[in-house]
Design brief:
Its EC number is 3.2.1.14. GO terms for molecular function: chitin binding; endochitinase activity. InterPro entries: CenC_carb-bd (IPR003305), Chitinase_II/V-like_cat (IPR011583), FN3_dom (IPR003961), FN3_sf (IPR036116), Galactose-bd-like_sf (IPR008979), GH (IPR017853), Glyco_hydro18_cat (IPR001223), Glyco_hydro_18_chit_AS (IPR001579). Helices cover 17% and strands 29% of the residues. The chain is of the alpha+beta class. The protein contains 8 helices and 31 strands. The protein folds into 3 domains: 115 residues, Jelly Rolls; 74 residues, Immunoglobulins (Immunoglobulin-like); 286 residues, TIM Barrel. The strands form 7 sheets. It has an 8-stranded parallel beta barrel with strand order 20-21-24-25-26-27-30-31, surrounded by 4 helices. Strands 1, 3, 4, 6, 9 and 11 form a 6-stranded antiparallel sheet that branches. A 5-stranded antiparallel sheet has the order 2-5-10-7-8, with no helix packed on it.
Length: 573
């Protein structure tokens, strides 16, 4: 978000082009002693991607590992085709000459190939079209008279969605490389934190443990439940009661040591414990940023913000000398006679059913949360400001990078203080949400249990990849829908995804689109109509809505944006 009129954000353009396929080096295996046939094993290493991309080579930037979806264990391969790159990932396996091997893999997502090359006889491959559930691909090959290594691979197809692969098997005689050792007992989970807290439940989150297939949750020293993912909600608790929690990681080898203890106190019966009575955010909501400064846009008081806006993000909080700590300083330029008058406007908006939150960051924001101390300082100071001013929650608009581990910890600490009615929004740039391995995307996924909506900034961007692997330029329906699809298919709920655009041509350096294009994108994503060349494979009727920078620039343009987009959002299915 921009403070200065006419300032331009950093433009990032992805240029489509050929991406060289990384050639896997041949693995040389010396002859085996004796003449007996080796026992059949899976000669592929790291077949379930539990060790990241270890033993695998993927074309540049196309491969990553994810925690969801997975077929087995805690990880799977995600291959993302882009331009002329089909997201090929390969491994050289050691084999016996004149031997037969069965090659198989579990796949889902976009069109996916599985194959083997360098067999010394006939190279093989098999494929399946797009699929929303796991499907097993299987083929077989025979090695040549002098073949000691074979390259096995999986890849997607040009212009199609990302694919996922897991539990790859190359089953046959041991070629001398052996197989992966059996699992060892996993280590202790780190980063255990308490998320949203109600009068009868506490949500727990922690960092996933490599090699773990499940987790056990302990309350006050007693095991109470298990989970297959690094989060869980403990229910059936008593109001206004303090509890201690620990978790352990498990797999077929056994249960690892317990984590550090985290304490959480349930709220009193009847709701959250911070910020006063907070109105609920509607199913479909319009978010607008209110400028606590004068940069040439219409100067407003909060009472002047049109009723079409459901969430008003006050921009921005200020950094202090203490890392992670924030403050808020009302700018005299916006015309309030006193802080009390400003607080009165917040209370009036909340009484009208609106949420007023405090935005942290902006184009020049310098708040850094990169360790445990700064995370706690952020949570404590943000909660104090919520208490002082009556803010419903916070917005994260850090455009100069963030640390997902400590930012998610800070937000969970804040939620534990503020209660389940806290509103949490985020406004990442397009580059931040291109894939789930980015720190912003990782943060959004880590706080899904308390996240209201991510309103990505579809402007000041340049061209970006859509979820189909094609490059789209800003300013079109396709740019809005194909990039939203990445978030919708990458783990966020439709209710946690919104479209962020400038309110006028003066609101951003580039990327302004007319309200008609915004409304067409909303139709395309929710009901499948008014799409451009890109049409999602399914609709998302629960999409949260839209956001604009800013209510002030909207007012400068006669509120044309909110008058057009507001009714459309509120009429979504």
């Amino acid at each position: 978000m921009e403070r200065a009129p006419g300032s331009r954000g950093r433009v990032r353009t992805l240029i489509g082009g050929a991406v060289a396929v990384a050639a896997a080096g041949a693995l040389s295996v010396t002859g085996l002693a004796g003449t007996a046939q080796a026992a059949d094993i899976n000669v592929a290493k790291n077949a379930g991607f539990e060790s990241g991309l270890g033993s695998w080579t993927c074309t540049a930037g196309s491969g990553s590992t994810v925690g969801s979806p997975v077929h087995g264990g805690a990880a799977a391969l995600k291959g993302t085709p882009a331009g002329q790159d089909n997201a090929k990932c390969s491994q050289v396996v050691a084999v016996q000459p004149n031997s037969t091997y069965t090659l198989s893999a579990w796949v889902q997502g976009g069109l996916t190939y599985l194959g083997a090359e360098g067999t010394g006889t006939t190279d093989v491959s098999t494929w399946t079209p797009d699929g929303s559930s796991w499907k097993q691909l299987t083929t077989s090959f025979r090695t040549g008279a002098s073949t000691r290594s074979v390259t096995v691979y999986t890849h997607g197809w040009y212009g199609t969605a990302a694919y996922f692969a897991d539990d790859i098997s190359v089953f046959g005689p041991d070629g001398g490389g052996g197989s992966d050792p059996g699992p060892s007992i996993p280590g202790s989970p780190s980063g255990l934190s308490a998320g949203s807290v109600t009068s009868s439940s506490v949500t727990l989150n922690w960092a996933g443990v490599s090699g773990a297939t499940g987790y056990n949750i302990y309350r006050n020293g007693t095991r109470i439940q298990s989970s297959t993912s690094p989060s869980a909600t403990v229910t059936g608790l008593s109001a206004s009661t303090s509890y201690s929690f620990q978790v352990t990681a498990t797999n077929s080898a056994g249960e690892g040591p317990r984590s550090a203890t985290v304490n959480a106190t349930t709220s009193a019966t009847g709701g959250g414990n911070g910020g006063g009575n907070n109105p609920a955010v509607p199913k479909h909501a319009v978010t607008g940023y209110w400028q606590n400064f004068n940069n040439g846009a219409t100067v407003q008081k909060l009472r002047d913000v049109p009723s079409q806006y459901d969430i008003i993000a006050v921009s921005f909080a200020d950094a202090t000398a203490t890392p992670g700590q924030i403050a808020f300083n009302l700018d005299p330029a916006v015309g309030y006679s006193s802080v009390a008058e400003f607080k009165s406007d917040i209370a009036a908006k909340k009484a009208a059913g609106k949420s007023v939150i405090l935005s942290i960051g902006g184009e020049t924001g310098t708040i850094s949360i990169n360790n445990a101390a700064s995370a706690t300082a952020f949570a404590n100071s943000a909660y104090a400001l919520m208490q002082e001013y009556g803010f419903n929650g916070v917005d994260i608009d850090l455009e100069n990078g963030l640390n997902s581990t400590y930012m998610s910890s800070a937000l969970h600490q804040l939620s534990a203080k503020a209660g389940s009615s806290m509103v949490l929004t985020m406004a990442p740039q397009t580059i931040d949400m291109q894939n789930t391995s980015g720190e912003y995307f990782k943060t959004a996924l880590a706080v899904r249990d308390i996240l209201t909506v991510v309103n990505m900034q579809y402007y000041n961007s340049g061209s970006m990849l859509g979820c189909d692997g094609k490059v789209y330029s800003q300013g079109s329906v396709d740019f809005l829908t194909a990039l939203a699809c990445i978030q919708l298919e990458g783990g966020l709920a439709p209710s946690q995804v919104g479209i962020g655009v400038p309110a006028s041509t003066r609101g951003a350096g580039s990327g302004y689109v007319s309200p008609t294009i915004v409304n067409n994108a909303l139709d395309c994503l929710t009901v499948g109509t008014n799409c451009g060349s890109f049409k999602p494979s399914k609709t998302y009727p629960g999409l949260r809505g839209a956001m604009t920078w800013s209510t002030n620039w909207d007012a400068t343009a006669g509120n044309a944006w909110s008058n057009a987009v507001g009714p459309k959002v509120h009429s979504l299915p």
